[in-house]
């Protein structure tokens, strides 16, 4: 072996060693980081599942955990053992319960998830039925500081796009009292307060039927193949399997017809409930900042009556009457605009 070849091989070996073992950046370090992240994702998803089952009053089991995470029961049992060793959960005769530390960890991930859903729906204009899966993939990599920054950027929202309350930074979580639409009495006025986001196919069916958060409805007919509701203006149909993922609360007054943005007078304001259009028209309205939950104020009409100027997030935009007719709102008082 020549001296030059020996030097080359020595240099190559050193380079390979650096590539493999360089602290935090080498291939071995990156493999460990990826492996650790995958383990953490499974544990955090397990904590979320246990928390969700606690809220429903049916505790999680090794079998339910395995089904939710797509692992074997043996793997689920190993995860439970690790959570118990880490002081995150404990087994009871009825199922799994979170410890205070486990509940805190679960709420931290739930908080990140629901804020991400709000961001994806409001800022990135992602379809409602797609935000859950995307947030599921991103929730585990955000730090607590990044989650707080995201909350501030979004204006401290109280609920995610599906109606679930967002935990506070201190871990407080409001309860949501609601009844599945399939269990709601015929003829009793109700307001939609939650749309279940899993499975996404069911949510897509709900969206296709035109049901949205805060919509006032009344069940008109319940059958084996369809459930018919009235929104004060028209009847809407959906399959019972989809209706079971719609949750409502009672109204103290009869169902009122939807209010359109175009009905506002100068100085009046409303909070957007839904956009009743699709395609490029919907895209344009979303790009103008007219997303569900946004408060819009009627500023003044155009010289010839239209277009009308509206104040949205500190900016003025102009909309024709037919565009305003496609935006369903809830009127809000001046005191509630802040």
Characterization of the model:
A hairpin with a 6-residue loop joins strand 11 and strand 12. Helix 5 crosses helix 6 and helix 5 packs across helix 7. The protein is built from eleven helices and 14 strands. The strands form three sheets. The protein has a six-stranded antiparallel beta sheet. A six-stranded antiparallel beta sheet has the order 9-14-10-11-12-13. A two-stranded antiparallel sheet has the order 1-2. About 1% of the residues have low confidence. It is of the alpha+beta class and 338 residues long. Among the domains are: 72 residues, Winged helix-like DNA-binding domain superfamily/Winged helix DNA-binding domain (Arc Repressor Mutant, subunit A); 72 residues, Ferrous iron transport protein A (FeoA) (SH3 type barrels, Roll), CATH 2.30.30.90; 78 residues, Ferrous iron transport protein A (FeoA) (SH3 type barrels, Roll).
What is the topology?
Layout: H1 3-21, H2 27-56, H3 62-69, H4 73-85, E1 89-91, E2 96-98, H5 100-122, H6 128-138, H7 144-153, E3 179-180, E4 189-195, H8 200-208, E5 216-222, E6 227-230, E7 235-238, H9 240-243, E8 246-250, E9 259-260, E10 269-275, H10 279-287, E11 295-301, E12 308-312, E13 315-319, H11 321-325, E14 327-332
Helix pairs in contact: 2-5, 3-4, 5-6, 5-7, 6-8
